[in-house]
Write a structure and sequence with these properties.
By secondary structure, the chain is mainly alpha-helical. It is built from 23 helices and no strands. Helix 7 packs antiparallel against helix 8.
Length: about 500
């Protein structure tokens, strides 16, 4: 009973942290005429409630797509409609067509924040708890510690409860999908992932590992027997789920194609703002968007993304184990973030989810990456007035994760899976790789802290106005690229032995 009380307290504390962050500012607060993501979500409620479904994704006199036009899949629109009905019941002014544009009030802010929390309580938080209890190794106390650290990840909290979005919904569905696969409920896991994909198209970051794992498992079971039955069952589950999500739009092919065009715009360019990926970092030296045409940028990013993700997916296809699946999720999402087209800084949350799945297996590397991913969004947090929540949640996560998961005490070469590195560096004098990793961690955390303080405290030179955002994105990019190489090497190494897992526990 005491242990279950401990779990309840951890979940409750994570909810308190979320609500504490929600008391702060949000994206575009008071910044007319476009405001920000908070207004975008409110506007989608206005549009879905007042206009017929046939107009949601079309530019009309009543629906100006240049003003936060709906550009997410149907499930997001349905979610907005549900929230709109509640908003209409509380205060019709919140979703009044045209007249509610830019609406801001303390009561409305409370309502919008509550919708994020309710979604998390229904989808994301239960998935985290069940994953950690059933699919991680160790004592109950260690599993509860993993739950707490997972739920305390500052990047997701600051974006959903500070900046304002509903990433917990799509990430929660994706986690339910991973949970289904881990427990052997492949069809249900496929349905959950399809829901994630129909909520946010960026879940394509995770699509290849799901596909390769299920296909590899079916082939392993035999395509003339159980494997074929599994493949057919999964295909039917996917087709039925997509059909139900898109049913209102399928009566008119032109309508469905307009939704697709809105979901996958190509006119925005290779990247936005100072995102910590390859193209933005390379743009410091070579102005890619000036050198290459828009079509060439698309083809280049597509080729690089496929090449980057191919080794991990092929490995998963030939060895469809859950350990390989988790690593492939991290590698695939990192490949998409580093090399794909039209990447936002917030897309790093799609990488953070699979890395959170590795908190119990590779605690030091997971904590290190999660800290860097939060740091990579610092310019956005400062823009939204979230400096204090950023500092408090980042320090809290670092403290509790190190205290509860003891990553610095479990970072031998075996526990860090550095055997492959040892083979690659055979020509060099024997080095203490575990000690080097620890020192790199200390230096990295110190560098992120110093850059955070400098960004806030100092003004950039007049001729280099973007100096600090560029330094932040470049530093984060170096972390992400290093993590991508590390996880790929780990995926091609031997799987963790039971002996090392017991040692960790």
């Amino acid at each position: 009973m005491q242990t279950w009380s401990l779990l309840s307290i951890c979940v409750l504390l994570s909810v308190v942290v979320r609500w504490g962050v929600s008391l702060n500012s949000y994206s575009g607060a008071g910044k007319a005429p476009m405001f920000g993501d908070y207004e975008a979500q409110r506007h989608w409620q206005e549009v879905t409630y007042n206009l017929p479904l046939q107009e949601w994704y079309f530019n009309t006199t009543e629906n100006d797509l240049n003003y936060w036009g709906l550009d997410y899949p149907p499930l997001t629109a349905y979610h907005s409609l549900i929230c709109a009905y509640v908003a209409k019941w509380i205060n019709p002014e919140w979703v009044e067509l045209h007249k509610s544009r830019g609406y801001e009030s303390p009561a409305h802010k409370l309502f919008m924040r509550a919708t994020v929390l309710v979604a998390d309580l229904m989808i994301f938080i239960p998935a985290v708890v069940l994953y950690c209890l059933y699919l991680t190794d160790g004592s109950f106390k260690k599993k509860v510690s993993t739950v707490f650290c997972f739920l305390l990840y500052p990047g997701l909290i600051l974006i959903d409860y500070g900046h304002f979005q509903y990433n917990g919904v799509s990430l929660g569905f994706a986690l339910w999908g991973a949970l289904g696969l881990g427990l052997g409920w492949d069809a249900l896991g496929s349905v959950a992932f399809c829901l994630a994909l129909n909520y946010k198209q960026m879940e394509l970051y995770h699509a290849l590992p799901f596909f390769c794992y299920l296909l590899g498992k079916s082939v392993k079971l035999g395509l003339m027997g159980r494997g074929l039955f599994l493949l057919v069952r999964i295909a039917l589950a996917v087709l039925v789920t997509f059909a139900l999500c898109w049913l209102p739009f399928l009566s008119d092919p032109g309508h469905a194609m307009q939704v697709v065009r809105r979901i996958f715009p190509v006119a925005r360019g290779l990247f936005e703002d100072k995102v910590a990926n390859t193209w933005c970092s390379l743009n410091i030296l070579i102005k890619i968007r000036s050198v290459l045409s828009n079509d060439s940028q698309i083809y280049l990013s597509l080729a690089c993304t496929l090449l980057a993700v191919l080794p991990s997916c092929l490995r998963l296809l030939t060895k469809p184990t859950f350990w390989q699946f988790k690593l492939a999720l991290a590698n695939s999402s990192l490949a998409f973030f580093l090399f794909s087209y039209q990447v936002h800084e917030k897309s790093i949350l799609l990488v953070a989810l699979p890395v959170c799945l590795l908190l119990s297996d590779l605690p030091l590397m997971a904590i290190w990456f999660l800290q860097a991913s939060t740091f990579s969004m610092l310019p956005l947090f400062l823009k939204d007035g979230l400096l204090v929540p950023y500092a408090v949640t980042s320090l809290a996560f670092l403290f509790f994760s190190i205290y509860l998961l003891s990553p610095l005490e479990h970072c031998s070469e075996d526990e860090l899976r550095l055997g492959a590195y040892r083979k690659l560096l055979f020509c060099l004098p024997r080095l203490d790789l575990a000690r080097i990793v620890r020192w790199k961690f200390y230096i990295s955390v110190a560098a992120m802290a110093v850059l955070s303080v400098v960004t806030v405290a100092l003004a950039p030179p007049p001729h280099l106005p973007d100096l600090f955002p560029v330094l932040v994105s470049s530093t984060a990019f170096a972390h992400f690229l290093g993590t991508f190489i590390y996880f790929n090497i780990v995926q091609f190494s031997e799987p963790p032995s039971r002996k090392s897992q017991k040692k960790n526990n």
